Amino acid sequence: MRQDNQLLVITHLSQLIIFITGFGGLILPLVLWLTQKEKVYQMDAHGKNIVNFQLSLIVYAMVCIPMVFLFGLGILGFIALGIISILFPIINAVKASHGEIPKYPLSLNFIS
Fold this sequence. Notes:
The longest helix is centred in the middle third of the chain and has 28 residues. Helices cover 67% and strands 0% of the residues. It is elongated, with a radius of gyration of 15 Å.
């Protein structure tokens, strides 16, 4: 296994592709993780954290949809999800560049 902090940073930042293309926030990091997890040191841990975070964002967005119609709070939920989905990939990319294994807050554990 090789140490490749740059690829780890790219994997975290690849989640932001969704703001450019409208999709791929889960697909691109998933592909990077699955193809590199046995080649790059710590890629497995980073990939699991990223996929769990992206799946959690999807679940939280699905919860916000009925809240828009019922309480109007869903709009605030979508705004919060948007901010979180921009900030934490950037923060964790910086942490990954320093060799840390970052954690995403409010992330549900789908893949352990």
